[in-house]
Amino acid sequence: MGGSPRPKAIVVGAGIGGLAAAVTLRRIGMEVEVYERAGELRAAGSGLSIMSNAIRALGTLGIDLGLEERGQVIEHVEMMTTAGRTLRVLPYKENCAKLGAPSVCISRSELQAALLEAAGDCPISLGAVATGFSAGPDGVRVRFADGREAHGDLLIGADGIHSAIRRQLTGPEPVREAGYVCWLAVTPFAHPRLTRGFNGHYWGKGQRFGLHDIGHGNAYWWGTRNMTPEAAREWNGTKADILRAYQGWAEEVTAAIEATEPEAVIPVPAQDRPFLERWGEGPVTLLGDAAHPMMTSLVQGGSSAVEDAVVLAQACAGSGDPVRALRAYEDRRRAHIRWLVERSYAMSAIEQEERPVPRLIRDAFMRLAPKSVLFKPFETSMSADLPTRASVPAGAGR
């Protein structure tokens, strides 16, 4: 990149996408400053899966976060009825091996720790609530609510679904609400059904449950239930309410809920946004949920943010023009991300189906469709056309 020998990127947001951007941009030799609105860096007490595509993408920059040791490689994926009867086993491990990297289920706190370790001495400013930005010939300036300003050559908005950077680029936009709540939790848990690398998905009438081994004696579980968008946004029930919602389900489902401390359960309304075609202008772009929040059905929320960060760094490493590099990053990601957002939304509606006939069709398809057909959406989601291994400057990221 032209200009100063170490161009500087301002990253707003220290979630998965923002920290991944800090790691990848420092890896190619850029100076990075991260600004986070929260007063402390504390990951939400839930889990997620980092899929093969994200791990493979990081490898193109020579980055290994050690996620297999921090979490648990996904080995066994079962789709089941509410009673725990198997509808289908998905060939996740073997298909991930064909894609060149494992998929790992991990707690958000362990993933955050891995990213912070990889980011090294990157400065991270907390309590920094971004209120706007201005761009000019000398780069971009970001303003914060407490009067601070930050100046850099590039601005990366990685500040989540309610991004202040996106709001200035696009104007006010309503979120798209799917009409169900998600309960999320990580808890110490042992059960005969929770074998090593187990990932179970239980499908019911307008509700689902997921149970995942994340290693080290811990499980990540999530539950969903249809309700009005208003009720999902404002849900303030108890653990007893959640247990009642899963009364009569498989024993391991209720056992996982019972094993969880009430304060460890996080309720989240199911929300995304329709796909945004234009992610930036001038020296400003968006990344992760700020650019493309999506439903969880293809398990690509966190992974696509990591992949964004890699593609962004690849574009910047190969360009002498920072602004052109941002447009190249956006162009490279647009088609694949559009497919992820739209397909995840459509799959979410099928998974949350309440009507008897569509549910019978859904479950019959799961039992009878060829494995190659069942896995195809996940294979496509993990098969973005990534750049080849980047040339990393000597000493970069140290």
UniProtKB/TrEMBL annotation:
Q: Which cofactor does it need?
A: FAD
Record keywords, A-Z: FAD, Flavoprotein, Monooxygenase, Oxidoreductase
A GO molecular function for this record?
monooxygenase activity
Top-level taxon: Bacteria
Start and end of every FAD-binding domain?
9-344
Establish whether keyword Metal-binding is in the entry. no
The record, for Pfam families, names:
FAD_binding_3
The keyword Ligase is assigned to this record: no
What is the name of this protein? Answer: FAD-dependent monooxygenase
The species this protein belongs to is: Microbispora triticiradicis
